[in-house]
Amino acid sequence: MSIISIGLIIGFFAGFICGLFGMGGGSLMVPAIYHFFGSIFPIDNRMKISIGTSLFVIIFSSISAIISYSKNKKIKTKLIFLIVPSGIIGSQFGAFLISKIEDRVVKYIFVFLTILLGLRMFFTSENKEDENSDTNSYNKLAGIAIGFFSGFVSGLCGVGGAVLIIPLLYIFLKISIHYAIGTALIAILFNSISGSIAYIIRDLIDIKIGISLALTSVIGAQIGAKIGLNLPKKSLRKVFSIILILSGTSVVFRK
How far apart are CA 21 and CA 182, in angstroms? Predict the structure, then answer.
């Protein structure tokens, strides 16, 4: 199978994950790009280019998924003004720091975060939040902190920030899972744009592979969003956490 064909397949499934779980698809794309395309990257920057290329694709898949969640009014619009600006700043810090850290260290930061947060989300209880509310009653400092930290992880680990945004919104701001996903997608889009710019400047994105992934990611995101919006909250949360754990575990065994 050609590299382009592999890219189209990976792009579709990454987009599907983005639409279904609001994860950007980075937790799937980073290990997939590393495994299937890593051999053509410079050996010292394989993980970094995998991350940069993942961020580039997430721009397209997140836009596609946002369209579906917006139509279904599953986005907490007022939270965006807290999360997005701080997330952009955080992603720049993360992208800057990656140029100072060994590739192996970045790899294990990714593994640690995905497994830890996956376990936390799996065992948390369901949120009883009033889904029809979109008030200014959120803790603004917590919203800013969530945005900055998730943006930092986005720039450092190329996962779009959703591995942190969704569980943190759910746990600390009491946002139900569907609204957490819809809201996170907006932040993911801006974090990914900001992070991609930083990686392009450092020549850590493979544009050709990124485009092949993006072509089908937008289709997968639409299909995933339609399914996710119709899944029960508990089922969606459980599967979300399992995907995080598996994606982190898979990277442990990549050389």
Answer: 9
